[in-house]
Amino acid sequence: MKRVLTYGTFDLLHYGHIRLLKRAKELGDYLIVALSTDEFNEIKHKKAYHNYETRKKMLEAIRYVDLVIPEDNWEQKVSDVKKYYVDTVVMGSDWENDERFEALRKYCDVVYLERTEGVSTTKIKRELGLQRAVNSVDQIPIPKHK
Question: What is the DSSP string of the chain?
């Protein structure tokens, strides 16, 4: 059985995410998604609209995904590859040449897939007018003044 692993936040799940997961699954028999925890996103200065548990449940409902594990830190990648007997790590092409993934070539194949043009979580958040937390309320629309 060939095992494939990918990493991400997978917030505001969209077609680009589904397409990436489908293509990743096509590279093997078993797809593992290491999902960034809320605490790790905070370290990365990212804030997801949905919390970890909600994002995990959404990923588990996708037929291409076999297992969702927490991503707690940048350093866990080698141990994930070893612990789950990963043959291939797959990431979006925006991560190409990043040393954190290139270093995994000692342990498994690393494949970068082209992103889906025209769709991204950042773009969706911008178009919906979502912003950072204000008064502890997260991702509220930016008021429009007339």
Answer: --EEEEEE---S--HHHHHHHHHHHTTSSEEEEEEEPHHHHHHTT---SS-HHHHHHHHHTSTT--EEEEE--GGGHHHHHHHTT-SEEEEEGGGTT-HHHHGGGGTSEEEEEPPPTT--HHHHHHHHTB-S-BTTB-SPBPP---
Which residue matches tokens 């789950």?
84
Q: Catalytic site residue 44?
A: yes
- pLDDT, the chain, mean: 86
Instruction: Based on the residue annotation, tell me whether 46 is a catalytic residue of this protein.
Output: yes
Query: What is the predicted pLDDT for the residue at 136?
Result: 45
The residue from 22, 46, 57, 83 that is catalytic is 46
> How does pLDDT run across 60-117, given as a tens digit for each residue?
999 999 999 999 999 999 999 999 999 999 998 888 999 999 999 999 999 999 886 7
Choice among 44, 57, 82, 83 that is catalytic: 44
